Amino acid sequence: MATLNDYLLVSGLLFAIGLAGVVLRRNVIIVFMCLELMLSAANLTLVAFSRFNVPPNGLPDYNGQMLVFFVITVAAAEVAVGLAIIVALYRARQTIHTDELTSLKG
Amino acid sequence: MNLAWTLLFLPLAVAAANQLVLKKTGLAPIVSVGSALATFVIALILLGKNETAYFAWATIGDFSINIGIKLDQLSTGMMIVVTGVGLLVHVFSLAYMKDDAAKARYFAGLSLFMFSMTGIVLADNFIMTFIFWELVGLSSYLLIGHWYQKESAADAAKKAFLCNRIGDFGFMVGILMLWGITGHLAFDQMKGGLEAFQAANPAIFGGVLSAAVLCIFCGAVGKSAQLPLHVWLPDAMEGPTPVSALIHAATMVAAGVYMLFRLQFTLGFEVFEGLQASAVIAWTGGITALAAALMATQQDDIKRVLAYSTLSQLGYMVMAVGLVSGEAGMFHLFTHAWFKALLFLGSGAVIFACHHEQDIWKMGGLLKKMPITGFTFLIGFAALIAVPFTSGFFSKEQILEAAHQKEPILFWIAAAVAVFTPFYMTRLYVVAFLGKNRSENASHAHEVGPLMSGPLVLLATLGAIAGFPFIAEKFSPAYHQPEHLIHLGFVTYVSIGALLTGVIAGCVLYAGKEKDPVSIPLLQNRFYIDGLYDNFLVRYFQDTFAAIIAFFDEFIISGLIVGGLSRAAESFGNLFRKVQSGSLQGYAFAFGLGVILVVYFTVFGR
After folding, report:
1. pLDDT value at residue B24
2. Residue A81 sits in which domain range?
3. What CATH number did the domain enclosing A52 receive?
4. What pLDDT, on the 0 to 100 scale, is given for residue B490?
5. Mutate which of B584, B587, B599 to disrupt the A interface (most A C-beta within 10 Å)?
6. Contact predicate B532/B538, CB 8 Å
7. How far is the alpha carbon of B567 from chain A, nearest alpha carbon, in Å?
8. Most CB atoms closer than 10 Å: which of B15, B20, B258, B301?
């Protein structure tokens, strides 16, 4: 049977992959997907803690799982806005590569 | 006392009215002349009074600066000279400046000058003297530069002002030193303070007082145009001639002598006997007298000859003050004021008649054309060269007598001056008034009107008789009556011998000559002193100083302080600009790193 540590390890790996993707990849869509990956890693952690934190009455602590629903909702809204921005950006600049989008520098 | 306050402030009111209200109306000259007449009458009424009155002008804690009036024989006598010459010059100016476009400005300037000069003469403390001293400098600047469109006049005005400022700086230091020594600024209280200081510090008394007196003397050097600050006075002849007569012959330049004598009078004459400062003053005067007389012998401009002669006579007065025979100096100031004003107004009449020709070699034969001017000029000439029984003779005799008693070398210097004075004046008179006309302008000259000849005749009368005891006793600011009218002795013989030598040499050399038979470049160029100032002082000293100041301004102020601050801000900005790279992933990386650091320090930091 999988332990809490296994879940946390997978979640940490997912988060690391997501962060690496955000920092290293040039394509904004990939960066965006990696961002989602990091959110999913956080969700996995929350659910795992919820599942393994069982008080004496036998019922798991559902607060963590409630928070995950909020995260999923907000993430869905974020995807809608984010993808719209990326489309608008492509229309304006004909590119979605981050190393070509550097006009906001001092 | 109300009369005395009127005497002081009436000219100021008139000057203000002329400048502000009466400019367009043409009334300005009349109002100014009226004010001059009124002040002369007041001065006559106040003659010989002994009173003091003052009000506090500025009070700081216990210390207060007063504006006050001190009436005594010295100040009321001096007021007679100032208002008397002033009145005649005002009247003369009515005719002389008849066609000038800026008459109102001119008469406002004259009235301002009368106000300032009255302030110096009547002042009851040194700060007030200094304030009016500066005002006199200002009005002199305004009047020399009356024809400011002419570059030479504007330059001369500037030169006069700057030279005076140099002297005034020393004057101010001297006043402050004297204040430190005596603890008082008012003349009446100074003597007590000085005695207290002498009792407390007998060892340093002489040295400190000498230093203070020499600093104050700097003011007199500037205003009375003694060496080495004399250069402004000849240039000041660029102003209208009546101004030269009033300011640069009779009154303002005498203010230095008056102030020195007032100082001696205040602190007591015995303090000045044997003081090193007195010797310096006497020698400065003597050397100025001789140098100026030498320079006068080779000048061709009628006003410049008179200007150098004024310098030379001022040297006499300063020498007398330095020899602690100030009453002789003041007596000479009194007589000199009349006959020198006469000579200047005479030269003004000549210049006016010859259509502003000032070169004596282009005049000639004017005595026949202008008998009144020529004859009155002759009287002034006689008084200046000290022909016996003219006013100048009596006063010069007293100075020579004092020099003979106290300092033989200075006596011989003064005697040499007494040779050169008749020499250059004879040259002037013979060339300009005798012989035949040497130019178109001179042959068309004719006698001036009564407004001009009237003052000349009055001044000539005074110039002739002002030296007799019955006048001098009453009017001269300070007068020491001799036992005999003329004391025939060694001094008188030397004086008359010098007079005859000078006149005969002048006649022999210059009678009937068409151009100057003698040419001494050293004297024509005034000992190269002006050149020295221009080429040495201005070029090396002033320019070096200017370069240092420019360096300080450019590198310290602009480079280090102002520019340094802006450069520091700019380089900090450049540093932070690097952070704003515009690269999205850079930000994300920094953000992630930050989160890790925050987590690290929260978890393991404690």
Report:
1. 77
2. 4-93
3. 1.10.287.3510
4. 84
5. B584
6. no
7. 18
8. B258
CB A22 within 8 A of CB A31: yes
Q: Each residue of B458-477: pLDDT tens digit?
A: 889 888 888 888 887 777 77
Q: Is the pLDDT of residue B400 over 70?
A: yes
Q: Is residue A98 part of a domain?
A: no
Q: In chain A, how many domains are there?
A: 1
B contact test, residue of A23, A29, A98 with most B CBs within 10 A: A23
Contact A22 B579 (CB under 8 A): no
**pLDDT of B345-368, one tens digit each?**
999 888 888 888 888 888 877 888
Query: Which chain B positions have a beta carbon within 8 Å of A23's beta carbon?
Result: 585, 588-589, 592
Q: Is the CB of B589 less than 8 angstroms away from the CB of A31? A: no
pLDDT tens-digit series, residues A55-87: 888 788 888 899 999 999 999 999 999 999 999
Give the model's confidence band at B599: pLDDT under 50 very low, under 70 low, under 90 confident, else very high: very high
How close does chain B come to A100, measured CA to CA in Å?
A: 9
Would an 8 Å CB–CB cutoff place A42 in contact with chain B? no
Report yes or no: B519 at the A interface, CB cutoff 8 Å: no
* b/e sequence A77-94, b meaning 16+ C-beta within 10 Å: eeeeebeeebeeeeeeee
B575 touches chain A (CB under 8 A): no
Tokens, residue B516: 């100057």
Question: What are B1-48's pLDDT values in tens digits?
Answer: 788 888 889 999 988 888 888 777 778 888 889 999 999 999 988 888
pLDDT grade for A106, boundaries at 50, 70 and 90: low
C-alpha span between B291 and B299 (Å, rounded): 13
Which pTM value belongs to this model? 0.76
User: Cβ of B581 under 8 Å from any chain A Cβ?
Assistant: yes
- CA–CA distances in Å: residue B483 to residues B328, B330, B469, B486: 14, 18, 10, 8
pLDDT at B82 over 70: yes
Instruction: Using CA coordinates, name the residue in chain A closest to B575.
Output: A106
CB-based contact B585 A24, cutoff 8 Å: yes
Q: Which two tokens stand for residue B392?
A: 């100048």
Residue A103 lies in a domain: no
Residue-wise pLDDT for B126-158, tens only, equals 899 999 999 999 999 999 989 888 888 998 998
ipTM: 0.81
Q: Phi-psi category of A58—alpha, beta or left, where left has phi over 0 and alpha has psi -120 to 50?
A: left
CA dist B315 and B403 (Å) reads 13
Q: Which residues pair with B64 in a beta bridge?
A: B59
Nearest-CA distance A82 → chain B (Å): 15
Q: Under a CB-based contact definition with an 8 Å cutoff, are residues B238 and B156 in contact?
A: yes
Strand partners, B63: B60
Chain B: residue whose CA lies nearest to A24: B585
Q: Is residue A19 part of a domain?
A: yes
Distance (Å) from the C-alpha of residue A16 to the closest C-alpha of chain B?
Answer: 11
In a domain, residue A106? The reply is no
Per-residue model confidence (pLDDT) at position B204: 86
Residue range B268-303, pLDDT digits in tens: 888 888 788 888 999 999 999 999 998 888 888 888
